[in-house]
Amino acid sequence: MQGRASDFLGHMSDTVAKRLPYIEWAVRLDRFGLAFFAVVTMAIVSLFVPQPISNMLAMGAAAAMVFIHQGQQARRRIFAANQLSHGLLSIAEDCIKLLDLQGRIICVSEVGRSLIEAKCIDDLVGIEWLDLWEGPDARAAFDQALAGQSTQFSGSCRTFGGALKWWTSSFAPVYGEHGKVTAVLCKSRDITAEVALIDELRGNARVQKDMEDHVDAVFWTASADFRELLLHVSSAFERMWEMPVSALKEDETSWAQRVHSEDMPELRGKMRSAVNSGVPSQSYFRLALPDERTRWVRADIYPVIENGAVSRVVSVCVDATEERMRLAELHKLANIDSLTGLHNRNAMTEAIVQRCESGEPLAYLFVDIDRFKSINDSAGHTAGDTVLKAIAERIRAALPKGAIIARPGGDDFTIVLPGAFDQERIERACRRIALACHRPIKVGCKNVTMSCSIGVALFPEHGRTPEELFISADMAMYAAKRAGRNTFRVFGEREKDDLARIQLEA
């Protein structure tokens, strides 16, 4: 036994030496197991067959090892490719699928199965994928891929759960060995949320446009530095400014050409104030329209704050013409005497307050129509109103520029003459007023002649507050009455003593 084993090992060594080129070829394949198997096999075969035949068998064995090795490498590459593709499909957020030439699903990613809401991938394999889509876009894009063109489309289809989803899909042709398209790779991304957001934005835009088109208010947006003054302006601009919106594209400042020059500084100041303070502001301004028409506009200006800073400014402009007319009417009712059109007591008081605060000298005159009650008693209140209106107009005409005249009530008139007055200037002003009142006034079929008594108080000599001036001028007027009427008196020492006595008695 030992001899035979020794002979076998010796024969195996001799065989290895003779077949060394073939063995080295197998070893270079880095497959030690195959090489060892080949050596053993060739050694055994060489014991029973002639050398030429064993050489041929050795060459065949080597070739077989090469084929086996190539097959194993191919299987490893296929396995690695499968692992790689499986990994890529697992991390992809899109629905990836392979379609055959009829549009049926060959395979699909797990993410795709989840997005389509199928229970398992097998439920999707073999189905007509193109039939799931609404509209012809999917078929048209698929046909382009079959023709060798990569393409894409967007559309909607229902999932297995019945939900309608929107997708954007890309097709890529897959080529076979002879350059023919053998399949189509499709990648679909779920854009349902994006479509819903776009629809919401479009809906909001439609609502905003409908509101802007049917509301007589101008909405505009500007950058915070006002370099881009009109980022957006609504269609009501054309109705309010009476100029086309297209004019703003040609000249962004054309809107300002309609704003009254006296109002523009305040408007720009309010706009800058909203940006600098971050607090809404409001401004009234006038538009100078064709045919010398004027329209009042109220602008409410709001700063838009983002990340702690004003990013832009939005404003709402409304027609304030009626509002200003109502305010003017209220102001008239509050400050204008309805009978004569002169200032009333409130307006005169406000005017005197302002001048007293400024410290500028002035003369305050209290004019009382003599024996006016007899006109009312003999000719009636209508005749009395006629007399009052005539006297008001005549006094207004007799006063110098800058004078203020008011009718506080009844048959009294008050006058403010700005500036410093000496006795001569006071006398000259009072005589003009007295002459204006004394001219005949036509009442009905006859003329009547009136006279007046005037009391004068000077600021600051006879009073430093409106109340003090009123009292001083009233006492001076009664002094003129006592002097025989149709004359004037300046508040003096006697009136001062009378006032002191009255104050003591009070």
TrEMBL record:
<dbReference type="Pfam" id="PF08447">
    <property type="entry name" value="PAS_3"/>
</dbReference>
<feature type="transmembrane region" description="Helical">
    <location>
        <begin position="32"/>
        <end position="49"/>
    </location>
</feature>
<dbReference type="InterPro" id="IPR035965">
    <property type="entry name" value="PAS-like_dom_sf"/>
</dbReference>
<keyword id="KW-1133">Transmembrane helix</keyword>
<dbReference type="InterPro" id="IPR013656">
    <property type="entry name" value="PAS_4"/>
</dbReference>
<dbReference type="InterPro" id="IPR052155">
    <property type="entry name" value="Biofilm_reg_signaling"/>
</dbReference>
<keyword id="KW-0812">Transmembrane</keyword>
<dbReference type="Pfam" id="PF00990">
    <property type="entry name" value="GGDEF"/>
</dbReference>
<protein>
    <submittedName>
        <fullName>Diguanylate cyclase/phosphodiesterase (GGDEF &amp; EAL domain) with PAS/PAC sensor(S)</fullName>
    </submittedName>
</protein>
<feature type="domain" description="GGDEF">
    <location>
        <begin position="360"/>
        <end position="493"/>
    </location>
</feature>
<dbReference type="InterPro" id="IPR029787">
    <property type="entry name" value="Nucleotide_cyclase"/>
</dbReference>
<dbReference type="InterPro" id="IPR001610">
    <property type="entry name" value="PAC"/>
</dbReference>
<keyword id="KW-0472">Membrane</keyword>
<dbReference type="InterPro" id="IPR013655">
    <property type="entry name" value="PAS_fold_3"/>
</dbReference>
<dbReference type="InterPro" id="IPR000160">
    <property type="entry name" value="GGDEF_dom"/>
</dbReference>
<dbReference type="InterPro" id="IPR000014">
    <property type="entry name" value="PAS"/>
</dbReference>
<dbReference type="Pfam" id="PF08448">
    <property type="entry name" value="PAS_4"/>
</dbReference>
<dbReference type="InterPro" id="IPR043128">
    <property type="entry name" value="Rev_trsase/Diguanyl_cyclase"/>
</dbReference>
